[in-house]
Amino acid sequence: MEKLTYVYLIRHSETIEIEASKQEENEKIILSEQGKEKAKDISKLKELQNIDILWSSNYTRAIQTAEYIAKQNNKDELLKLNEKEKLSYLVEQLFSL
């Protein structure tokens, strides 16, 4: 019997309110306190328990959200991908599972 692969795409949680005009600044926006609480709640979802691999973009808020999921799953490794490598790497990894 073939093992099924499930892929969950989760957008980062709520961020603090700032005006970010440049992409660099946008990448550094952090989670708000409410966003941190939501990320903690998301990390406890049944579907996200016992995951094999966890990827995140290199945006600070995405990493923060993913770190809650990693901690809940006792995962030390969190793969951070920049925008250019993200799609091709994900597709390659998904088809090699």
CA-CA gap between termini? 14 Å
Give the overall shape: globular
The average pLDDT score comes to 76
DSSP strand tally? 2
Largest sheet: 2 strands, parallel
What is the beta-strand fraction?
Answer: 5-15%
Oligomer: single chain
Q: What pattern of helices and strands is seen along the backbone?
A: HHEHEH
Binned, the helix content reads 40-55%
Give your account of this protein's structure.
The protein has 97 residues and is mainly α. It contains four helices and two strands; from the N terminus they run ααβαβα. The protein has a two-stranded parallel ribbon. Helix 3 links the parallel strand 1 and strand 2. 11% of the residues are buried. The model has no long low-confidence stretch (mean pLDDT 76).
Give me a quick take on this structure.
The protein is mainly alpha-helical. The protein is built from four helices and two strands, in the order ααβαβα. It has helices at 23-27, 33-43, 60-72, 83-96; strands at 55-57, 79-81.
List the main descriptive attributes of the protein structure presented here.
97 residues, two-stranded parallel sheet, 2 strands, 6% strand
Q: Secondary-structure map with pairings?
A:
Layout: H1 23-27, H2 33-43, E1 55-57, H3 60-72, E2 79-81, H4 83-96
Parallel strand pairs: 1-2
